[in-house]
Amino acid sequence: MMKKILISGMVIAGLSSVAYSDVKIGNPMARTGPIPELVKPMSAAVDLAVEHVNDQGGLFSDGQKYVAVKVDSACDPVAAVDAVTKLVNVEVVTGIVGPVCSGATIAQAESVSIPAGVVTLSVSASSPAISEMENGTDLVFRTAASDAYQGIALAELAMSKGIKDIAVSYANDDYNAAIAAVFSKAFTSMGGKITGNEAHEPNKASYRSEVNTLGSGSDNLALFAYYGSSGITIMRNALETGAFENFIGADGMLAQEVIDQLGAENLGNVTFTTSASDSSTDAFKSWRKHADAAGVPASDPFVPNSYDAAFLMALAIEKVGSADRSKIAAALREVANGPGEKILPGEWKKAKEILASGGSIDYVGAAGPQDFDKNGDVAGLFSKNTVVDGKWKPVVIK
Amino acid sequence: MWESFWFEFINFYFIPGLVLGCIYALGAIGITLTFGILRFANFAHGEIMMTSSYLTWEFVLVASSFGLILHPIIGAIPASICAIILALIVDRLFYKPFRNSPTIMIVIASFGMMLIIRSMVQVIWGPNQITFVKGIAKPNPIIKDFTSSFDIMLLIPNKHIFILLGTIIIMLIFNYLLSSTKIGKGMRAVSDNPNLAEVSGINVENIVKATWVVGGFCAAAAGVFLAMDTQFIESTMGFRMLLPMFAAAILGGIGRPFGAVAGGLIIGLAEELSAYPWLGDGPVISPGYKSGVAFSIMVIMLIFRPSGLFRGRVF
Predict the structure, then answer these.
(1) Is the ipTM of this complex over 0.85?
(2) Which of A167, B86, B101, B238 could covalently link to A214 via disulfide, CB atoms 3.0 to 4.6 Å apart?
(3) Which residues of B touch A (CB under 8 A)?
(4) Angle at the Cα of B15 (from B290 to B262), degrees rounded to 5?
(5) What pLDDT does residue A2 have?
(6) Residue A134: which CATH number?
(7) pLDDT tens digit string along B191-246?
(8) B257-273 vs B15-38: helix axis angle to the nearest 10?
């Protein structure tokens, strides 16, 4: 795989000065770092979208090849800036599909892609800070819903479970601090009481004093952390001492590792939310058919979002009619928001024909309708996940 | 009021602080010994801890494939032997050539060893977390029932009993070794003054080897106890403990093993107790800043009493 990428990268680099037969987009993703297992299927979904475009006629009237140049953003702001700088300046990409993590997305957008006038279409960055970071440039989009929505969904979930008071513990980073703030505000406005709200430092051997300081006020804990750096240890310490009975949290905690380490029998009162797709829509059914055929796990977190992003970017480029970076943002809105003929995942040929005849389209994505608002955000659905038979079982919150 | 004060204080702040302190103390012994006898800060010490916990996990896993369910403490015995051998090999190949060079070279060498050992562990076992012991450790019911009849219910999980008892036993052996055996007296002599020790007929090279054996064993014990407490292992677990262990060694006085033990317990207790609501309802210092407590103690100590509590070496 890597060899293939390297070779195709070299071939592209060799060709780019001679013939413009390919249209390149950048695809930075956290291929190494704290979440490689999550990213693998997301990357495969991008490949699938590229394959669909190329198999069904490619880009423009002369069938140019759609190429995603893969680099590693490592879920790290510094690595993302380096990787995207290379994409923008050396590979001269038309747009960027990725990165994965919020911190990396913000950093690369602020220091590279926005100054260069290149559209970033993130596949999973969910920090609320991304909504209003563009300063009027309209260059940052995402196919995953903002945590501003997930925080509220989580507060509603807590209310529906009859939780009236709750303690909040969050890891002190961009993503977790932001969603904790949204949750606290929403929960308070719904009439709930936050009994304690403390940041914790990740990567400590013990969180017993944190847990017990918070535990004196409430039996319920809203935990915002990455499972690997502090989440599991906090839950373990809380369960050992019986400081908390009910736990809620967001996607940073949703990993099989949590069940493997703590034991399913101890996790009866645990609910975590994550972004989800409504599997009853025609768009999702179409996506599932293609994904199953290609061996891509259709319902995994942010996998349909990744497909949508790569497919939407191709539609926008087709709409523009050339690899002109400056026109992508406007075209992206037109193909995603409509009005126009509905296009489902995998229907590249149909979309291409409509666009060629001067018609307009409205892409309906695998992960949701994918209509961008003024901040380049999409609305999203969330699922609540509980442990059933030793696995996380998602139920979409309607 | 008082009843609940003691219950909360002892179970949720004091005992966890003591457990953390024991782990710091065992790790700090190795650091202070190498610092005292070889005169350099061994950055690779945390990685010896980490490697021995991985080895313990591997031994337990291999034994279970033969149908033997081993307690991690049993698995730790072959693992600590491997850790000692690792420490000796590292010393022979990478530290000995620098023995007469400026200290900074051997410090950098140890820093390099830290990265090399960690990378090797990542190559062998992968960079992901591994579950060391599955499940939740509930408080020991016998102690709970027994103590609750005296109105001070103690909630101590078995793993903490193992850690506390294990540390006490290792300390007693260590005390005997240092104060009553020839090799221990030699270690203390070299630590006090290496030149004087050499002219009085002590084989310094043998003492160095003994230092690695003792330091490696304590590191292995600290690593396994840490893994037993957190119940997972990952490749930076030793490195994360390194700075508080240095703080403990400096607090106790460089080259003073019992100082390191006292320093470890003080740092561990200070970290946990700083979050206790001493004044009013809220924690005195937000638990998010508790690692700052360890370093404040270290910095204050370095400024006002650089020799440490037990009058160690000043560099």
Answers:
(1) no
(2) A167
(3) 8, 11-13, 16, 19-20, 23, 129, 131, 134-139, 155, 157, 226, 229-232, 234, 236-237, 240-241, 271-272, 274-277, 282-283, 286-291
(4) 70
(5) 52
(6) 3.40.50.2300
(7) 888 888 889 999 988 999 999 999 999 999 999 999 998 888 888 889 889 989 99
(8) 150
